[in-house]
Amino acid sequence: MGGNPGGAGGIDALVRDDGRVHSAIYTSQEIFDLEMERIFHRGWVYVGHESEVPNAGDYRRRTIGRQPVILVRGSDTRVRVLANRCRHRGALVCENDKGNAKQFRCWYHGWSYDDTGRLISVHAPEGYDQTLDFAGNSLTEVPRLDSYRGFLFASFAPSGKSLAEHLGRAAGYMDISIDASPAGEVALDYGVHRTKYHGNWKLVGMDGYHPTVLHASMFSLRSKMGQASYQDPWEDASASATRHLDNGHVMLDLTGSRMHNLQEHLDTWEKVEGGPEYVRAMRAAYGRERGDYLLAQMGDPHMGVFPNLQLIGSHARVVIPIAPDLTEVHMFPMRLLGVPDGVNEYRLRRHEFSYGPASFVSPDDAEIFERTQIGMMAEADPWLNLTRGIRRETRAADGSIAGRITDEIPQRYQLQAWKDMMSEAA
Amino acid sequence: MNGVAVELLKSVEQFVYREARCMDEHRYDEWLAFWEQELLYWVPCDDTDEDPRRAVSIIHDRRAQLEQRVTRLKGRYAFAQQPRTRLLRVVSNVEIESDSGESLAVGSTFALGDWRSDRQTAWFGRNRHVLVRHGDGFRMREKKVLLLNNSGALGNLTFLV
Q1: A195 vs B: CB within 8 A
Q2: Which residues sit opposite A309 in a β-bridge?
Q3: Interface contact A164, partner B, CB < 8 A
């Protein structure tokens, strides 16, 4: 597309209120560049979990948009996000993916920073005639970092909406993942599935319409779930819902179906090593009603926190845009604290069944995203149809916008939030 | 190496070559017949191969999961293998690491090229087979595959590796 996509009428014209969306938002390099600037280098972006950096000096390399950063816990116990770039000539100061370090040393000219980012030494300092301002040459800190129950989000904007305002109703639903632990705590220390596909990052989306079709091969393996009493949560007429929470955070809310299927879920835990103990611990920690609600959810809110975090199954999924047509997806299985080992092992093996590069579900998603990316190059008619269920949206008691599980509420409201952020000048 | 040892090594090599060709050609049922009843097919992830109960794996299949894998691949709806990835691998550096009489631990390396969607991808890795003597030949009790890039961002790995 030509012209300036961020200019007057540009973005607005691409995402229409009637559910029609121009495919350039998935294919254009100019749009992608603007997304980096206005979404990833400005808004709240998930960067990691406190359990990944439990001790002083623990660090993880991460990226926010295009920018390499270090998530590190300093010897003052504070967690920071620091630009991974020497203040001298710009080289990386941290090469490893993860580890523990007292110092980050640039191997170009020996500038060294402590685990709070402070410049502590340089090679041959006399060349600066004692004018080198050490305090003013700390690693650049990302100005805002905040946590929701251990999930860390950073923003390059020094001021603006707080994290609590940004998350809105989404925070309460993130609890479904965290409170799957009777101790109310999870750790992301099982490693990570890193995957990539040749398609746009927004295609990861959150779609309740596709599972029955695209994932037929997986459902046929699980046909034992087909007892008469079992309600398929992905059927249009099921008690499941699609939901827009706030600010583009969306959910495939399977609660209705899952509560209908509560007994099947409890039966599953009966057969897992440590499962019966887990059920008792959950009811003791949260009471029978909330405990059963959480057990039925299986720790899976099936939600997207815009723009780059999803909580699906038992893992935290991070969406990393590389180029308009290249995306990485990193999946971190969550370990529940305070449960028998057998419960966590069951969750890990169940995760591997569905997710990762050799699994039975997510590779089919990646495949269809690649076919979508190629198909969208047929721009003779560039308009996508995201209208499903647009006339049956309702406002739920908690204020969220809800529809049937197959409705395209997530797509429409993610792109509404996208449009709002993309239209905001500096 | 004496004549008996050379003959054993040759027969082990022939076995892993046959398995490789079977995987290259997507002959799923035939590949399943290479396995013992009790089995472990393990592809570790994230540069960690110590304890799969404490770390996520790319593949951690016992027989039930392996049979599901094969069932899925043979069906019409495993879209990540429709069409099938074209595969060619070279297995080399075959070494018998230990021989208990009943079973052998065998190390090998491989280079694997895949061609799909107009794109060629190179994979490299190290295999460790635990083979059980069975009649004149062997069956696999365990197979562990350490991919060179198992801590990297991986594309479609739904074929047999």
Answers
A1: yes
A2: A305, A318
A3: no
